[in-house]
Amino acid sequence: MAYKITDACISCGACAEGCPVSAITEGDGKYEINAELCIDCGACADACPVSAPEAE
């Protein structure tokens, strides 16, 4: 199950930098995770200072 980024995102980019498969890109107002690329490792959640990524 892929992660998703909630509205708590502050668009800092920490999650994208921490993603080992480059599944995260900057979206409109917040970052977005490509569910097809996400390997459900949780690196994005660990890197995020506001806990915006959550498991779906």
Helix/strand layout:
Elements: E1 3-5, H1 14-18, E2 24-26, E3 31-33, H2 43-47, E4 53-55
Overview of the molecule:
The longest helix has 5 residues, at 14-18. The model has no long low-confidence stretch (mean pLDDT 96). The strands form two sheets. The protein has a two-stranded antiparallel sheet with strand order 1-4. Strands 2-3 form a two-stranded antiparallel sheet. It has helices spanning 14-18, 43-47; strands spanning 3-5, 24-26, 31-33, 53-55. The protein is 18% helix and 21% strand. With 56 residues, it is of the alpha+beta class. The protein is globular, with a radius of gyration of 9 Å. It has one domain (3-55): Alpha-Beta Plaits, CATH 3.30.70.
Structural class: alpha+beta
Structural domains: how many: 1
Average residue-wise pLDDT: 96
Query: What is the H/E order?
Result: EHEEHE
Q: Within the CATH hierarchy, at the fold level, what is the topology?
A: Alpha-Beta Plaits
Radius of gyration: 9 Å
Please tell me what the overall shape is. globular
Brief summary of the model shown:
The protein has 56 residues and is α+β, with helices and mostly antiparallel strands. It has helices spanning 14-18, 43-47; strands spanning 3-5, 24-26, 31-33, 53-55. A hairpin with a 4-residue loop joins strand 2 and strand 3.
